[in-house]
Specification:
heterodimer; A: 113 residues; six-stranded mixed beta sheet; five-stranded antiparallel beta sheet; B: 112 residues; seven-stranded mixed beta sheet
């Protein structure tokens, strides 16, 4: 199936810095979602995007559904230590069906106090 | 707030042994899923159940079977475990197949 390319693979940043990560695909996606996974836990949904060009915020997190429908971006502003974890993008290339959802390999974020 | 609960959390199996991973959700969701997570691969769908009484194969179903026992419970069975099935397994659910997916805490399975 269609694969998602997520970058960067890992990031080491200082507390207070802003963070950007992205996900790209060679084909069009109808839905983009961003999840965060803490060590030893399951992924938790952060933001869901359903429309090309859509920009959605959740606290210090902002995600955008790329206008080409082939990419999505997640920004974290003013990072704090609890932002540490792995961030996954996910997308649905076909209809709005979860059986079609594909995940990126994740971006591992480390925040130094 | 239980959400999606899966057991066991950790399991070590010998090659050829069988086991069942249990999953239950208390959100009255119609759809349930089993994923596996491997390093550098992201999450991949093994099987899903769109609604009670139905199950379908996902992206990587070989070597697994599932049972949707009732609306709450969806189990994953490995009939003859292989080292390639060493992974972290996540059960998940959603209200409908088009809704946001909520994950359990994961089950770490090692096959030796």
């Amino acid at each position: 199936g269609q694969q998602l390319n997520q970058s960067p693979q890992s990031m080491f940043i200082q507390e207070g810095e802003d963070v950007s990560m992205n996900c790209t695909s060679s084909s069009i996606f109808n839905t983009w979602l961003w999840y965060k996974q803490d060590p030893g836990e399951g992924p938790v949904l952060l933001i869901a995007l359903y429309k090309a060009g859509e920009l959605t915020s959740n606290g210090r997190l902002t995600a955008q559904f790329g206008i080409t429908r082939k990419d999505s971006f997640l920004n974290i502003s003013a990072s704090i230590p609890s932002d540490v974890g792995i961030y996954f993008c996910a997308g649905q290339p076909g209809g709005y069906n979860n059986n079609d959802m594909r995940f990126g390999a994740g971006t591992r974020l480390t925040v130094k106090p | 707030n239980a959400g999606v609960t899966q057991t066991p959390k950790f399991q070590v199996l010998k090659t050829g042994q069988s086991m069942t991973l249990q999953c239950a959700q208390d959100m009255n969701h119609n759809s349930m899923y089993w994923y596996r997570q491997d390093p550098g691969m992201g999450l991949r769908l093994i099987y899903y159940s769109a609604s009670e009484g139905t199950t379908d194969k996902g992206e990587v179903p070989n070597g697994y079977n599932v049972s949707r026992l009732n609306k709450r419970e969806f189990s994953l069975r490995l009939e003859s475990a292989a080292p390639s099935q060493t992974s972290v397994y996540f059960c998940a659910s959603s209200e409908v197949m088009t809704g946001p997916v909520y994950f359990g805490e994961g089950s770490w399975l090692t096959v030796v």
